[in-house]
Amino acid sequence: MAKAFNYYPFFKALESNEGPEAIIDGQRVLMLGSNNYLGLTRHPRVVKAASDAVLRYGTSMTGSRLLNGSTKFHERLEELLAAFFGKEACLTFTTGYQANLGTIAALATRNTAILVDKADHASIYDGCKLSDGEMIRFLHNDMASLDQALAKAVQEKACLIAVDGVYSMGGDLAPLPELIEVARRHQARVMVDDAHGVGVLGPGGRGTAHHFGVEDQTDLIVGTFSKSLASIGGFVAADEDVIEWIRHFARPGLFSASLPPASAVAATTALEVLMEEPELVDRLNANAVIYREGLREAGFDIGDTVTPIVPIVVGDERKMVGFWKELLANGIYTNAVIMPAVPRGQAILRTSCMATHTPEQLKHAVEVMAELGRRHGLIPDAPIPQVS
């Protein structure tokens, strides 16, 4: 029924994706639904490096890292990532999802409890299911809840705390300094999935742990290449002995074909560009301030976000889809999000800005959203805000 009336907001096929803009159904739209935070998927160096790698090395390794799927490209990328995050070693996976699955399943035995934030990404939850460990949930960003859960769990098991650095739907941060203080008090290890933090936060885009200055106290940093690093794949960075264990016991890595050379080269080149042009991170966050402040001034509920991820909280799923549809008709592409990504009755439009957006594009988007938001009863009927 939703498809018949063009109210189905999922699996929309893009005809062209140029970064800050895209073409869908023949219409040019402003892209506010991408995780391409730094805009590097269209960077000339990244595109050329990937293209050259395909021509020289082909499209696939057709085997796992354990057997015939390891190359110097994988090793170079892992060395660069380890140095970037200040860790002893790193291991790459074919997807970011696999990185969480493989890491958690390899580390969590029957004598392990994995404590997860209720708002954690699905890959963390699925990693717990794949493991032999016991999963224990605590309230979102609630350190008293974590402390209480740890106090009980550590009496019988070793404990691993697994959290997102930046929460992918809300754009808020895990309070890592407080979380690490609780973890150390109970002798628990800390794993941060920084899929949406790398390239976004911290000095030079090194992520949430570096943003808070607690990278040395964060035991494992997991991430993906499919956001800021302009490719596909994932990684985990940690101490050498931890990585060596994961390398030999992470089933998603052992039993999947490895990252294609072109993907590894694209991620490596994107990371090199980020290291050479850290101002991209500053530009991204300057745009995020313009965008967030504009939506807040307009009267939208955007939650506790402090990042380029900006949810527009609607609540009612039908009203949210109606708003999404009209935004698209007016040239604004956003993501409609319903259960299970958010709780039932808490539907959102998940939006995000990029370093390659212009301030003028973001101000225009706010004006269109404000006008349509009043029409849909999402914000008070007031003059359109003048975004400075």
Any overview of this molecule?
The chain has 2 domains: 15-37 and 278-375, Aspartate Aminotransferase, domain 1 (Alpha-Beta Complex), CATH 3.90.1150; 44-274, Type I PLP-dependent aspartate aminotransferase-like (Major domain) (Aspartate Aminotransferase, domain 2), CATH 3.40.640. The chain has helices at residues 44-57, 72-85, 96-107, 122-130, 143-153, 176-185, 208-212, 240-249, 251-254, 261-276, 279-298, 317-329, 359-375, and strands at residues 14-17, 21-24, 27-31, 89-93, 112-117, 134-138, 158-164, 189-193, 220-224, 234-238, 309-315, 332-333, 335-337, 347-352. The strands form 3 sheets. It has a 7-stranded mixed beta sheet with strand order 4-10-9-8-7-5-6, sandwiched between helices. The chain has a 4-stranded mixed beta sheet with strand order 1-2-3-12. The chain has a 3-stranded antiparallel beta sheet with strand order 11-14-13. The chain is α/β, with parallel strands linked by helices and 388 residues long. The chain has 13 helices and 14 strands. The mean pLDDT is 95.
